Amino acid sequence: MNGVLVANKPAGLTSHDVVARVRRITGERSVGHLGTLDPMATGVLPLVLGKFTRLAQFYQDADKRYRGCIRFGQATDTYDAEGDPMGDEAPVQLSLEQISETARNFTGTIAQLPPPFSAKKVAGVPAYKLARKGKEVKLEAKQVEVKEFVITDWNSSSKSATFTAWVSSGTYLRTLAHDLGQKLGPGAHLSSLERTSVREFTIDEAHTLEEIQEAVKTEKLDEIFLHPRLVLPEFPAVTAPADALAKIQHGSAINLPEYSRAGTVRVFSGQRELLAIAKRIAGTLFQPKIVLTEN
After folding, report:
1. In the CATH scheme, what is the code of domain 3-59+200-226?
2. Which are the contacts of 66, defined by CB distance < 8 A and separation ≥ 6?
3. Rounded to 5 degrees, what are φ and ψ at 185?
4. Identical fold at 64-198 and 235-291?
5. Rounded to an integer, what distance in angstroms lies between the CA atom of residue 35 and that of residue 136?
6. Hey, which end of the chain has fewer CB within 10 Å, N or C?
7. Cβ–Cβ contacts within 10 Å for residue 195, how many?
8. Residues in a beta bridge with 192
């Protein structure tokens, strides 16, 4: 069972929980995800099944888009709604203009400190394990890119601002919310978060765990797999000639004269079967680097 399945992660489950459930639902042992979501967060969690797990290497630095809500007046130790309050609730007297203007200071390439309750490791131990024991967590700031951080609405009654964000891999939206609250004064935490895309995978293509289970039950799982031609669109798609199929399956180089200027290509059999990811090694000769079909 090879393919990409875009799951719509519910709140309350870890990304690993979703992977485990999809393993049980589909009966496919080899399942991985393309980017962790915090348990509180919902939305796009692309899953790779079978031999498609070999494609995960191409998504390690994938940009992501989000929409969410930040509540002002109260910082928490986890930087989100699941944490314990840090100090008393503060009065909030802010405007949409103030919040929007300050949010713009967090765009571009910035140094961001991960939350103390995170999976970042300190001397080989996840930071959240140390934080839960009350131990001091010393994390190093990391360079991330915030391409977009837009405040879309402000509700003074609930002290909440909604936002959209487009960020590089490794960016913590919890930290953005926390740092924005610190900059403006009253403190803040992330109260809700939905991931709307991971590179080419979008929320419109996402399926709930219930929908995935129903698709398996009705033998329609193939219908909710993402079309293989939509995967890794940055690489040209090549339909392999029939006499090249055996070579590809055995990892042998093939000649693709019409793609002599491409560095990497996706090799298909017909419209739907992705056979391999191949790299040009010389002239018009391409070597399969990842083979996704059975020998």
Report:
1. 3.30.2350.10
2. 43, 164, 165, 166, 167, 173, 193, 194, 195, 196
3. 115, -50
4. no
5. 27
6. C
7. 26
8. 69
Q: Fill in the amino acid letter for 30.
A: S
| Contact residues for 218 (Cβ-Cβ < 8 A; gap 6+) | none
Q: Residue 124: what pLDDT?
A: 60
- Residue 199 has a CB neighbour count (10 Å cut-off) of 20
Per-10-residue mean pLDDT, the chain, length 295: 95 95 96 93 97 94 97 94 91 96 97 75 53 62 95 97 96 96 96 97 97 96 94 92 86 83 89 92 90 79
| Res 163: pLDDT | 98
272 pairs with which residues across the strands? none
Give phi and psi for 123, each to the nearest 5: 50, 40
- pLDDT (0 to 100) of residue 119: 56
80 is catalytic: no
> 């090694």: which residue's tokens?
281
Amino acid, res. 153: D
Q: Where are the domains of the chain?
A: 3-59+200-226, 64-198, 235-291
Q: What pLDDT, on the 0 to 100 scale, is given for residue 9?
A: 98
pLDDT of 115 reads 83
- Per-residue pLDDT at 114: 84
pLDDT of residue 10: 97
- Spell out the CATH class of 235-291: mainly beta
Asked if 276 and 292 touch (Cβ cutoff 8 Å), the reply is: yes
26/49 Cα distance (integer angstroms): 10
Class of domain 64-198 (CATH, top level): alpha beta
Give the SS3 label for residue 242. Answer: helix
User: Residue 284 contacts by C-beta under 8 Å, 6 or more apart in sequence?
Assistant: 255, 256, 257, 259, 260
Tell me the C-alpha distance between 225 and 120, whole Å: 32
